[in-house]
Queue: 2 jobs
Job 1
Amino acid sequence: MLIMFSNRITQLFNIKYPIIQAGMVWTSGWRLASAVSNAGGLGLIGAGSMSAEILQQHIQKCNAATDKPFGVNVPLLYSGVEKQMQIIVEEKVPIVFTSAGNPSSWTKYLKQHDIKVVHVVSSSRFAKKAEETGCDAVVAEGFEAGGHNGREETTTMVLIPLVCDAVKIPVIAAGGIATGRQMLAAMVLGAEGVQVGSRFAISEEASCHLNFKNAVINASEGDTLLTLKQLTPVRVIKNDFFRKVQEAESNGASKEELDQLLGKGRAKKGMFEGDINEGELEVGQVSSSIKKIVPAAEIVNEIWQEYTDTLKRISK
Ligand SMILES: Cc1cc2nc3c(=O)[nH]c(=O)nc-3n(C[C@H](O)[C@H](O)[C@H](O)COP(=O)(O)O)c2cc1C
């Protein structure tokens, strides 16, 4: 039997379980976001790989596919953010997760339109800044996480208590969380919800290429690493592209040379077009524990069931 649950995160978003599906470039469109929201979590459309027009289509399709709340993740490092924000307001999206940038640039604007704002941080210093700018919650993302990451390499285990002690707003833990046991550990550390990326990337509804999903399933411990630290640090699967970057770095490549090697569209090439040798394959350390592609609702239910079962077991 699943217990009824309520805390500041479920109340903030009006959801059943404090399980948030991360916004992920080339991976989390309306299909994944609506499936997670329908299952009682919070689904996020990843706007990072979308033009404003495409984002609008995804929001409208998501609205048609669920009557539950969902949100949009807007990484602030790409161009076109202004138009994306206009669409979000126009389409009355109730929740926005901003990342990879300064929370002060958009929080006030979004709050003026009654939108709940959450910012992704990798340190307690940035968490305090997000709180000061009026964010409703923060995602504290540790070093284990897939995708872009902080330079300090602070692990989830260390980061969550630091951030929880630094701010009063609720903290959502991210990085290395794919199971109910990992979720419980994060909640014990003080988080009130979890943001799960890699695990949902390998769901049936995720829009990334099957080759990418299979590469994740075949990944073993130690097969991902944080790279491109001179540019924007990103955790990826070690492949031919990764090895070229490592070689260039060990030969003393400059920022400009690395930028040239990265080129345009590496993430799309790897994750959306399925070129697993030359593309950028963003995924977290938990990839080594992901063994099959399943529907997103199964992931939500399994995480919650294991969370409650483990809580009962350790309480005895
Ligand atoms: C394929 C992939 C794409 C990602 N793209 C984004 C993104 O567009 N915006 C963002 O804020 N974070 C992005 N991330 C990071 C996730 O939002 C999330 O914080 C992270 O995956 C959590 O760690 P986990 O992978 O261990 O679950 C991405 C992660 C993955 C695996």
Job 2
Amino acid sequence: MNLNTTIAGINLQTPLVMASGTFGFGEDFARFDDFDDSAVGAISLKGTTLEPRLGNPPPRIAETPAGVLNAIGLQNPGVDAVVRHVLPRLEAGGLTTPLFANIAGETVEEYAEVARRFSTAPNIAALEVNISCPNVRHGGLAFGADPAEAARVVRAVRQATDLPVITKLSPNTGRLVEVAEACVDAGSDALSLINTLVGMVIDLRSRRPLLGNQTGGLSGPAIRPVAVAQVFRVYAALGHRLPIIGMGGVSDADGAFEIILAGGAAVGVGTALFFNHRAPREIADGLERHLADAGLSRLSDAVGAAHRQSRIGGGGP
Ligand SMILES: Cc1cc2nc3c(=O)[nH]c(=O)nc-3n(C[C@H](O)[C@H](O)[C@H](O)COP(=O)(O)O)c2cc1C
């Protein structure tokens, strides 16, 4: 069965992309003897900024009934440390999986500079521009919720690099399709969505918000139907122009296949890795079964198939 897929000219052996922030810089999972690299199509590295960041004050993670709320606040060692130390280590270790550098910034210029520095690394296949982080005071969502601001970031990154540009979109806006269109017009080669949904947990003992940042981003199984709907909408509007990496709450092959049918040419797997490091292998095997059941020999034939069979166009109840 052929699970190959292509994102912005990059060939992935499976459609499974390890979602940014849930797979570190690719090294953490090496300690599991039974982690199966061959199920992984690409790795999206932890969001990286120009300067090192310590992130938000703790607590930064809260569990919820069907997901996780996080407010890490883009903790990272800064682009120079990643380019000089982390990426050479990955290369020396023989990692051949395509790597996406997930970049963030407080200003348009910062995004462009981070893009420029990552472009000097030999083993970065694409840049994933995170304009959707809900957990930082400056940047992040301020860019991702507004089409003109989003386009400014993408245009600046486009001019700063020859690498393919993937723009990571936020579900925390009523203008998702407008933002997506603006990013495509500004030169994005692919889109990834969704990032986390803003949420809050109140600590019943202190009767105050539990997270140090008060709000956090919700991920995990709870958000999967939201992700499927958002991927479906963006594919309907833009699927003919560029590929989509769909993600949000995928923990099994059923969820991954839903994302593909909605329009994902690739599928991000994030929070599921925290409770099942075998998820990528299980999902890849299950996808092969789904394709066989549907009588399809190639994954690409299933991408967006829900549109061709859909009776209702968009909208809610
Ligand atoms: C702990 C944590 C850290 C994250 N950090 C980033 C990040 O640095 N950059 C980014 O674009 N997305 C980040 N995300 C969002 C994920 O990449 C993904 O879009 C989201 O969690 C939805 O997918 P999931 O439900 O499969 O986790 C983070 C998510 C989690 C749970």
